[in-house]
Amino acid sequence: MANRLVIQGGKKLSGTVTIDGAKNSAVALIPAAIMADSEVVLEGLPNISDVQTLYQIIGELGGSVRYDENQAIIDPSEIVDMPLPNGNVKKLRASYYLMGALLGKFKKAVVGLPGGCYLGPRPIDQHIKGFEALGATVTNEQGAIYLRAEKLRGARIYLDVVSVGATINIMLAAVLAEGKTVIENAAKEPEIIDVATLLNNMGANIKGAGTDTIRIQGVEKLSGCRHAIIPDRIEAGTYMIIAAAAGDGVKIQNVIPDHLEGITAKLSEMGVPIEVADDSICVGEAEHLSKVDVKTYAYPGFATDLQQPMTALLTQAEGSGIVTDTVYSDRFKQIAELERMGGKFKQNGRSVVIYGKTPLKGTKVTATDLRAGAALIIAGLVAEGTTEILEIEHIERGYGNIVEKLTALGADIRKESDEPSIS
Ligand code: EPU
């Protein structure tokens, strides 16, 4: 059954939206939790399909998850080293964290190569380099990664590419290794600190998460604990961009403003009035939006995940802005769709020029990936007429309750399904 979002553009948004727990933390915290020998309680996980898929995978491994809207209780005590060459692991990118978690716990794992958004080639060579340095043998057999080790021993690992996934995955494998591991040129994203905090609460000994050198002293076992997830800086940034495009006063609450400095600076530069409080940000209406140039980098640089939504906003700014993605080589699939709505662009490799200000018109478009989907929602909210967004399963992988949240802000948005016809 295919689902789509239908948006009637032109409504002014106002009110308050509450941000969920961070998707890119949640998808690592859940695999980390299976390394404990007793129940781990994770508070504030987002209501998204990537999280649901991970719950199912925990069930396949013999563990259990009980959850409500506030918390998930993960019981890993019965988990076994079941091979996962296919099936649910293919549905999300972050299933690669099962490699580090299962290798750390059982010294062996079989995990199918991950799915997720196509953003250009997304190799996992740095993850594998780390596992091998810790003593694992890693092979790729018919699209599944096989990892085995007699024992894991701490090592010094220099990442050739600053990678969120490799940093977290090596951390997972190293916490139960013998001796000391040092990860150099580590990524510094807040999600890495969140995962290290959980692991340390479980009994691990990790120092330096959030800096480019992480030191891990191996421990013998990890135990259950309670952990509250950090808010999703990408969901928050997306709502800030939505508010800048279509709002006249939106409060975004449950945020850590420090995590949003890049997007706050860029929106201010565009002329958007922004007020920052302790755990909320108010985005006012700009008299007019000025163009900006945006270049993405690893944290604390401007987040690649917000680059696509920014291209939609820049169609409404005066002048020509340039967006460059230095992290991914092919993360501009939204551009062809935005062009169909009347946006004017010129793409050259990793950069795209956005010629504003252009009126957008609603039409049928496709969410080719998660953040492209967010860009199309923004375009649909400012467009004249009706926008239909197809393939919204990409959007549902990362934005919880998006129809409800936008409706509460005053948007005219609904989800429709093509019910199979009964004749
Ligand atoms: N890279 C390599 N080799 C590796 C690993 C990465 O060459 O072994 C390259 C990638 O191809 C990319 C760059 O290094 O060019 C950075 O990739 P990174 O490993 O940091 O990304 P990731 O862990 O695969 C996570 C998020 C992404 C987010 C990036 C960058 C998760 C599950 N995904 O991906 O989130 O864009 O970090 O911040 O945490 C999203 O939420 O829409 C999303 C795609």
UniProtKB/TrEMBL annotation:
Keywords tagged on the record: Cell cycle, Cell division, Cell shape, Cell wall biogenesis/degradation, Cytoplasm, Peptidoglycan synthesis, Pyruvate, Transferase
Question: Under which EC number(s) is this enzyme classified?
Answer: 2.5.1.7
Primary residence: cytoplasm
Tell me a GO cellular component.
cytoplasm
Q: Which residues bind phosphoenolpyruvate?
A: 23-24
The cross-references to Gene3D superfamilies, in alphabetical order and at most eight, read:
Enolpyruvate transferase domain
Q: Show where the Enolpyruvate transferase domain sits.
A: 7-406
Q: Some GO term, biological process aspect, for this entry: which one?
A: peptidoglycan biosynthetic process
Which InterPro entries does its entry note? Enolpyruvate_Tfrase_dom, Enolpyruvate_Tfrase_sf, MurA_subfamily, RNA3'P_cycl/enolpyr_Trfase_a/b, UDP_GlcNAc_COvinyl_MurA
Q: Which transformation does this protein catalyse, written as a reaction? A: phosphoenolpyruvate + UDP-N-acetyl-alpha-D-glucosamine = UDP-N-acetyl-3-O-(1-carboxyvinyl)-alpha-D-glucosamine + phosphate
What pathway or pathways are given for this protein in its record? Cell wall biogenesis; peptidoglycan biosynthesis
Please tell me where UDP-N-acetyl-alpha-D-glucosamine binds in this chain: 93, 122-126, 305, 327
* UniProt subcellular location: Cytoplasm
Alphabetized GO MF terms: UDP-N-acetylglucosamine 1-carboxyvinyltransferase activity
Annotated positions of the 2-(S-cysteinyl)pyruvic acid O-phosphothioketal modification:
117
Q: Which family does it belong to?
A: Belongs to the EPSP synthase family. MurA subfamily.
What NCBIfam families is this protein classified in? murA, PRK09369.1, PRK12830.1
What task does this protein carry out? Cell wall formation. Adds enolpyruvyl to UDP-N-acetylglucosamine.
User: What name goes with this protein?
Assistant: UDP-N-acetylglucosamine 1-carboxyvinyltransferase
Gene field: murA
